[in-house]
Description:
By secondary structure, the chain is mostly helical.
Amino acid sequence: MSRRRQEGAFLDKGQKALYTLKIVMEELKKQIKELIISSLELEDTTPEDIKDNEPLFGSGLGLDSIDALELGVALKKKFNVKLSAESEDSKKHFASVNALAEFINSEIGK
């Protein structure tokens, strides 16, 4: 039996739903990290180098406003989400990989 199956074998329905959501969010974060790397051509960076809570701009990953535009376009294409460069909410969504994952997850459900 696979480890994932073993971990979920004794969970009730609510716990299974949370467990499934956790797996989905982890996969979404991985896809976001891979998209950051590929769309911004960060050749010496791996998904493991990007921390989920690390700021994407400034002192964290060190992205700039041009990177934000390029990443925004890539996110729109891959996940079909609407982002506005002028929106204060967009700045919050771009704070970290976790913030982007939460935003994308909320938009996919609409």
